[in-house]
Write a structure and sequence with these properties.
By secondary structure, this protein is an all-alpha fold. The chain has one domain. Helices cover about 85% and strands about 0% of the residues. It is built from six helices and no strands. The longest helix has about 45 residues, at about 155-199. It is elongated.
Length: about 200
């Protein structure tokens, strides 16, 4: 077998393993991808707005709020910005990949599904990463907000632990629900198309 025969055999094998996706199927893929991109943009800008609002609320002139209270909340918000920046860097990578889709083959569609699965894990991690911030915020609020009577140690412990348990459960539920509503159903549409192409 000469080199030309080897080249032809190699090209035939590759084309057999990675079939082209038809234009009709590409159009079916583009609709859910555009919905995902739109939701990612909305989530990014709403997160920026919430952070700006958070910084503004902390530094609104309230005479009775001590400087330490404002300073601790500012440090907490700045730390949140660092964590959010890390996760959004992962989301931007996915956004960039689906903004210029090169979905010409079945394998590229499988790779996209792998990226969606990976970003789902990032998304849930993103929600759970707010647990330490919730703990710090609870401690700051308990320590600095005025109370009619001094809180007992037991009362403080029960308040912080119960609020943390509810907050953790709420964040997990919110993360799963938010992902399913804004991304999951569109990813499912792409996965259904992938299963059709597999047949």
């Amino acid at each position: 077998m000469n080199i030309d025969d080897l080249k032809n055999a190699w090209n035939e094998d590759v084309s057999d393993e990675t079939p082209e996706i038809s234009i009709e199927n590409k159009n079916k893929i583009n609709l859910p991808l555009e919905k995902i991109r739109k939701n990612m943009r909305m989530e990014f800008w709403s997160t920026i707005a919430i952070l700006i609002f958070g910084f503004a609320v902390v530094w609104i002139p309230v005479p009775e709020a001590p400087f330490k209270f404002k300073f601790y909340l500012t440090v907490l918000l700045a730390s949140m910005v660092i964590v959010i920046s890390f996760f959004f860097s992962k989301f931007f990578k996915l956004y960039k990949d689906i903004s210029n889709p090169m979905l010409k083959t079945y394998d590229s569609l499988k790779d996209l599904m792998y990226q969606f699965d990976l970003n789902k894990q990032y998304y849930l991690s993103f929600m759970l990463s707010f647990v330490p911030f919730l703990v710090c915020e609870l401690i700051i609020v308990v320590e600095f907000l005025p109370h009619r009577e001094p809180l007992s140690d037991l009362h403080i412990a029960v308040t912080v632990i119960s609020a943390l348990a509810l907050g953790l459960f709420g964040l997990l539920l919110l993360g799963k629900y938010w992902y399913r509503i804004f991304y999951g159903r569109y990813v499912q549409q792409i996965e259904n198309l992938l299963n059709e192409l597999r047949k």
